[in-house]
């Protein structure tokens, strides 16, 4: 998403990104999700995670979204 008005605020598994999106939605922020599904061969060979997602928000919503992420970080890392 180069040269766009969106900024990546979180990268994680499907489950954790769904939680982040839900919390953002509760305060009126519509996040954009980019799925990163690598080919099975590359993931298997290099030990990568096939199912991770990136969460982006509009630059104008960055401050509020960052507060949500900061509040969730201890819970997501547990």
TrEMBL record:
Name recorded for this polypeptide: DUF2007 domain-containing protein
Superkingdom of the source species: Bacteria
């Amino acid at each position: 998403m180069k040269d766009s008005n969106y900024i990546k605020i979180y990268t994680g598994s499907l489950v954790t990104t769904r939680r982040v999106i839900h919390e953002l939605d509760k305060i009126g922020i519509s996040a954009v999700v980019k799925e990163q599904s690598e080919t099975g061969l590359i993931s298997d060979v290099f030990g990568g995670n096939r199912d991770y997602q990136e969460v982006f928000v509009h630059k104008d919503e960055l401050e509020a979204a960052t507060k949500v992420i900061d509040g969730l970080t201890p819970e997501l890392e547990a």
